[in-house]
Amino acid sequence: MRYLPQEALNGLSKYSYKSVDKSLLSNYVLNPYWNQLVKLWPLWVAPNTITLSGLALVFLNFLTLLAYDPSYLCERGGVVLPSWVYYSWAIGLFLYQSFDAIDGKQARRTGMAGPLGEMFDHGCDAINTTLEVLLAGQALNLGRSWWVVASLIASLAAFYLTTWEEYYTGQLFLGVISGPVEGILLITSIFVVSGIHGPSIWDTPILRVLHLENVGFLSNSVLNLGINEVFLVLCGFGLAFNVVTSCANVTRSMKQKRTTATRPPLLNLLPFVVTMGLHVVWLSAPTPTKSFIVQSPLLLPFLASWGLQFAHQVGRMILAHVTGQGFPWWDSTWIWLSLASIDVYTPVLFGRSSLVQSSVTGVQLVVYSTLVISFILYARFVYLVIWDITEHMGIACFTVRKKDSQGHWNAAVDAKGKKIL
């Protein structure tokens, strides 16, 4: 299957990037810094190279997590990460934010602004979202828990919501407080605090922090959560606010454009809900033991595969946006996730043992197979989309175009005349 039929390729010429950033921190503090930072990059460096460099730093951070904590345990489980690891995570994430902010500026400096950059930028952001949830889960001492799952759901939901809003309004909207700006700086601060005090600091009951632990009716209440848990609850409220805001923006945009969608926009939030539901159902499986995956080292590859599936899902949405195609509702990974869920619930549904996931080895086989399949599907999507766009537009992905003697932009080619991606 090709993701870009000819009519979609023709729609690329109509695309123009639009964004609104109301963040005071971004406009008055970070933007002057970004304007100076982009000048350090030579004009021969392609914008996508800058974006990919930032993601490479995050991957390096993730590799240190795998090196020091491959089973995804926190301090309470006996794994103590060196302080420098958390500091390196903070530096890596801050540089990722910086590079992500200046790739568009570099694109305008080099005349490379266009739909390919939009696709590449959002694709890297989607991957980074999952990786940072995993890193932050370790730094916040959440370990193998449903709190990590909930934080991934909330983070992916916020990203999906923003992309869904951009699809219908035609512009990326960042409010006074947004994930790409304040959210990233907040996580960076968490890494720094964990480096100074260790992740266990986040387990401190919030009532002790507020000096209310001796108040009788509060001390034994559900309000006496750890700082890390309170943080995630507040993020949940933030997500609810974003849902209301995004829905209002889409409704307003539809009325202003006086367009009638073939499907009500709210229904196009369901693909995320379906994907989330299938993953949660699988995680909640009663065999071999209740919530086995959540409590085992399989949680890390399970969430990583979920992140790859999500990147594929929102990547198709962004592609539909820049090419003017219809909203991509169906997701082929639902078939695999449904089969995995049915298999693990076979004892409950049919009174017989699971075909594959009746043992720990069986569950491991399915989880790692899911990771491999998710990676192949997303890698194939990335390759085909990049190839089709660069082929159609006569550009290169990681090379700045050159002007010929007549002032026309040429695609970069090697000595044999083959186009360089």
TrEMBL record:
InterPro entries: CDP-OH_P_trans, CDP-OH_PTrfase_TM_dom, CDP_ALCOHOL_P_TRANSF_CS, CHOPT
Gene3D superfamilies: 1.20.120.1760
Pfam families according to UniProt: CDP-OH_P_transf
Subcellular location: Endomembrane system
Pathway the protein acts in: Phospholipid metabolism; phosphatidylcholine biosynthesis; phosphatidylcholine from phosphocholine: step 2/2
Record flagged with keyword Coiled coil: no
GO molecular function: diacylglycerol cholinephosphotransferase activity
EC number: 2.7.8.2
Transmembrane spans: 41-67, 79-99, 145-162, 222-245, 266-285, 291-312, 333-353, 365-386
Family affiliation: Belongs to the CDP-alcohol phosphatidyltransferase class-I family.
UniProt-recorded name of the protein: diacylglycerol cholinephosphotransferase
Higher taxonomy: Eukaryota, Fungi, Dikarya, Basidiomycota, Agaricomycotina
